[in-house]
Design brief:
signal; 3-stranded antiparallel beta sheet; SUMF_dom; formylglycine-generating oxidase activity; binds calcium ion; CTDL_fold; 14% strand; identical protein binding; alpha+beta
Amino acid sequence: MDTSAIFPCWAFIIMCLITVDFTSSETIAEELVTVSETDTLASSDSESSSCGCDSLKRDGVVSIDRETSLLSDQAAVKYSKKANDGMEVSQGYNQDLYIPDKMVLIPAGEFLMGTDNPEIPQDGEGPQRRVHLEQFYMDIHEVSNQEFQKFVNATSYVTEAEKFGDSFVFEGLLSEAVKKQISQAVAAAPWWLPVKGADWRHPEGPDSTITDRLDHPVLHVSWSDADAYCTWAGKRLPTEAEWEYACRGGLDNRLFPWGNKLHPKGQHYANLWQGEFPSQNTGEDGYTQTSPVMSFPANGYGLYNMVGNAWEWTSDWWIVHHTSDELHNPKGPETGTDRVKKGGSYMCHKSYCYRYRCAARSQNTPDSSASNLGFRCVSKNER
Ligand SMILES: [Ca+2]
Ligand SMILES: [Ca+2]
């Protein structure tokens, strides 16, 4: 048994109990108990673990006691600018490569969507079903800050995070000054904090900027923001089926866009989390936060960062029960409350969020935004 996987789970539960004032809400206490029970099982099985990024609802935050937050103290050290100086070094893949607005043809075809061997069954990863798709074009990378800036400059669009006045940021990324002003956290995942003034231009709050990361994925965009961008660009969000088909890059039945091995030839193929989530990110893949959108090798269709880096919105409403019938150009259910997102992010680790697989999926309400959630667009014709 991998005891190294057990310790962080229990240490983390203790941190949650200390961090959250759950006497104020029975619901929160229940959520914590749930986390505790599932993590006991999850020590050798990641099925029930969660990074909590599906819990980012503005009405789901609770008060926290910053004075006694062990997580805060740990994260403050681990993620201080000083501790991470020199970490942003890529692995040598396409270091200086960035091509805005480029799309690639995804040929018509059929594929097996989902899996009959789900790692996280409650996410509705199965059953595997045959899906036929018409050809379409897809952005070769996540929409970048630079591309989104062009859209905002042209339209004066105001994102939902800017209208709400806040967005969710992973605690480990925040400066001490910003952290001191925050008194709430997500109950089920106290490392997610609602930060006033966090938006796409200020990914870690008012004292942060995108000036030095215009080629990184735009973050803090809600589903509606993403939809608005794609429409402006003459494109649309991909269906979940299109996204997953594209993710697979022409390979059948593989876990990742490049195959089944996470580190082929000892190399990192995606921007994920190395270390113990959520307290230590070693940045072994070169990045503790987002990476440029064309970092790491492209898949068989020429698509970059389909898994890892930023989560990506799709156009489908979220359900977890799927037909096993053969489908043609499925678009998901007619209505719903949450939208499907795919691919996982730089915060995903096998122990807590094994969702950097093509069949993996998660959801958020359409108005949610966070420091690890972005998108890319598709279109019928090349734009
Ligand atoms: Ca990383
Ligand atoms: Ca991605």
